[in-house]
Design a protein that fits this description.
The chain has 116 residues and is mostly helical. The protein is built from four helices and no strands. Helix 1 crosses helix 2 and helix 1 packs antiparallel against helix 3. The longest helix is centred in the first third of the chain and has 46 residues.
Length: 116
């Protein structure tokens, strides 16, 4: 009986110790799915940049409609950042970049805005 209890305890410990490892493939699968969806979004932005930029402006509450010159400048910067993001994401597998609310800013401007 004591051997059975000891064996049961050992099995329980092994199962508990392996519990985090069991969840790992599910997390990886979810992460890969999220990465694929994210890549699809970025690829779509590259294929239809004007539409994607307009959607991005709306999603982030930005408007340059009254200043066409400024809008074209921001669009050009956004496109440069999109290219950088696509190139960066192609080289890494542990994380990825995306088009957040700062995607229409140059690196210099972002650095000035958030420098400590």
């Amino acid at each position: 009986m004591s051997r059975l209890v000891a064996a049961g305890t050992l099995l329980c410990v092994v199962l508990l110790a392996g519990l985090s490892d069991c969840a790992q493939p599910q997390r990886q699968q979810h992460s890969l799915h999220a990465r694929d969806a994210h890549h699809q979004l970025l690829s779509s932005a590259k294929e239809r940049p004007r539409e994607s930029f307009a959607s991005w402006l709306e999603r982030h509450g930005k408007a340059y409609k009254n200043d066409l010159k400024e809008m074209e400048k921001r669009f050009a910067i956004w496109l440069q950042n999109l290219e950088y993001i696509l190139e960066y994401n192609a080289k890494t597998t542990t994380h990825w970049l995306g088009l957040n609310s700062l995607a229409d800013l140059t690196k210099v401007r972002r650095t000035r805005m958030y420098a400590v």
